[in-house]
Amino acid sequence: MLGNALIGLREGLEAALVVSILIAFLVRTGRRSVLPKVWLGVAIAVAISVGVTLALTLTQQALTFQAQEAFGGGLSIIAVGFVTWMIFWMRRAARSISAELRGRLESAIQMGSTAVVVMAALAVGREGLETAVFFFAAAQAAGETTEPLIGFLLGIAVSILLAYLIYRGAVTLNMGKFFTVTGVLLVFVAAGILAYGMHDLQEAAILPGLDTLAFDVSAAVPPDSWYGTLLKGIFNFSPQTTVLEAIVWVAYVAVVLTLFVLPQRSARPVASAPTTS
């Protein structure tokens, strides 16, 4: 549940901040008449995201066991790709996203109402589609749908509240630190989902090594214990982990976390050539 709450909080806050930036721009420039178009675009994005989640669920239910495992494993890899791209993109674009969105909305207004609806739908829809795929993969890794859904909805609710308070000026949030901390946590969540995806592909007989365990700590960490449930819910930890799962988890965390915490390179001004008299 906690891992899904983090997904909902992180993705929800990104989407909510996008909406608040668009609304603030329209209010401050005296264009309140355009607000319904923005809300229509947001509603379309949300509907598409929910539809994608339902479609993924129905598609998996119609498959055989082996096909379900292959489908789930493939989606887990796609979801991890999404979240990896997202955490690096947000770290790089956090400072310029507001100006970029305002520029796009200004251009859309000049083009007409349809362009505003499409622009708002695309701005929010990207986050929604990423969230749908990542939530589906996380729920599959957790082995249930109720608790992950509750955690996800709680994270979304908190993100909407935070975005509203930020918009009203009641709360000041250091976005750089927020996205850095949640980015680090999501690296570990994504590593667990990726490892579980490997396990799905092993159960589908696409990858070998299903019976070759790296460790078995079921006696020390029972899956039904509170701490076993906590580790499973946050990091998708499995007491019985295959060698392939362990290698993938360690490799992903080692590479992605190292790249993420490295300081960003700032563009250096090009030195002008000395003039000769």
Question: What does the secondary structure layout of this molecule look like, with pairings?
Answer:
Blueprint: H1 2-28, H2 35-61, H3 65-93, H4 97-111, H5 113-142, H6 146-168, H7 175-203, E1 213-216, H8 226-235, E2 240-242, H9 243-261
Antiparallel strand pairs: 1-2
Q: What's a concise summary of this model?
A:
Its main location: membrane. With 277 residues, this protein is mainly α. The protein contains nine helices and two strands, in the order αααααααβαβα.
Question: What does this molecule look like?
Answer:
This is FTR1 family protein. Pfam families: FTR1 (PF03239). The chain is mainly α and 277 residues long. 75% of the residues lie in helices and 3% in strands. The chain contains 9 helices and 2 strands; from the N terminus they run αααααααβαβα. It has helices at residues 2-28, 35-61, 65-93, 97-111, 113-142, 146-168, 175-203, 226-235, 243-261; strands at 213-216, 240-242. Strands 1-2 form a two-stranded antiparallel ribbon. α2 runs parallel beside α5. The longest helix is centred in the middle third of the chain and has 30 residues, at 113-142. The protein is elongated and about 65 Å long. Residues 267-277 have low confidence and may be disordered.
